[in-house]
Amino acid sequence: MSFSLPPLPPSLATPSLAPPVDLPLRQIPGSYGWPLVGSISDRLDYFWFQKPESFFRKRIEKHKSTVFRTNVPPSFPFFLNVNPNVIAVVDVKSFSHLFDMDLVEKKDILLGDFAPNLAYTGNMRVGVYQDPSEPQHGMVKNFTMDILKRSSGIWASELVSNLDKMCDNLESTLSNSSSASYLFPLQQFLFTFLTKTLSGADPSVDAKIADGGYLMFDRWLALQLLPTVPIGILQPLEEIFLHSYAYPFFLVSGDYNNLYNFIKQHGKEVVNRGKLEFGLTEEESIHNLLFVLGFNAFGGFSVFLPSLIDAIATDTTGLQRKLAKEARENGGSTLTLNSVKDMPLINSVVYEVLRLNPPVPLQYARARKDFTLSSHDSAFRVTKGELLCGYQKLVMRDPLVFQEPESFKPDRFANDGAQLLDYLFWSNGPQSGSATSSNKQCAGKDIVPLTAALIVAHLFRRYDSIEGNSSSITALQRAK
Known about the structure:
Helices cover 45% and strands 10% of the residues. It starts with 9 loop residues before the first helix and ends with a strand. A five-stranded mixed sheet has the order 2-3-9-6-4. A three-stranded mixed sheet has the order 1-8-7, with no helix packed on it. With 480 residues, it is α+β, with helices and mostly antiparallel strands. Helix 7 (207-225) crosses helix 9 (253-266), helix 7 crosses helix 11 and helix 13 packs across helix 15 (447-462).
């Protein structure tokens, strides 16, 4: 590389209240505004007048700082117990403090200070809401990592067989139409593939689950997330009906109970391992498995894969030809999670899309104690209990780390570019890090990009070219 990457914050190695050497100590700029009025104003900017990316960009420009105080949704009037005040950290160096468990805690901050009603997860705090200091966190994290490890033997074969079914259906649709929407077929594919590999339960044994399981997860996810995510429908209707209050669980209780009973009946082997090997009750095993399956895996891939397909299908630089060449010449005759590791360009494309469009846009952490946080050019005092918020889409476009940060560069992470994986934080930690029971890094940190690479490789062994966008396919040319 022709430039020097900035070091990670000194505080990550040696936490201290003293400002890092050579960095001026600044007061954190910005404010929370007048009570009630300030949070409502920021909420309207975030969802309506500016939208998330512009919301953070404008405040960076205003304060001449990538660290500042602001409010994030949800907020007043019907979220009286939610504090929207955050310290935004929007560069790689300040953002990385969110993953130092000596400095911050992760208890109940998945969606900031807001948490959906516990009824959505069986009236219990599943592992994602627990801090590593809590005893049960390690039990749940180890259970999750064990599920992923044991599923690896059938992961590739199940993915390929179910992906082929989806492709056959898309081809059939395209034979009679100029385009084929793939969003619901993609979710159907993901639901079947992930349910079989992660829970050991085959949806085909229950017609109701096989046909509508993915929609059950969609509804369950949507009602939890609506107060915090922009939808893009006609304003002010979105503000009035989607962002003003939390939706009650009873609206999706039937869906969740159907999924729960399906896993209880058909995923007994995995559930019993949770009980016998990791000390969880049957209920804890099922509710945590459902969260990993529905929120982390199904939800994450449903957001990420359309961005990946869009980046490839709309590229006009000859990328598809290079992807097809690599997919067919590397990896052997049968694709596996290991064989796609020999495809540097395909893996780089996956990482580049994760950089530009991380599936989880916001990361949060609460200060475990007073400490000094550093950005590239300044140091700031953070007080115990303050909530830090990082908007990953801008963090991952930090111009001091990534050259031409707004551009899609397919080979950015290939060859010597692999050093940039130290600064790719899509998974609640750096891609070069490791998920353990003592941290909050995603248990699927490795298998997620490998799965995406496997999908790309299989598609370009099947097709010479793919045309479309983030929701539809317009042309598929079979490999000659």
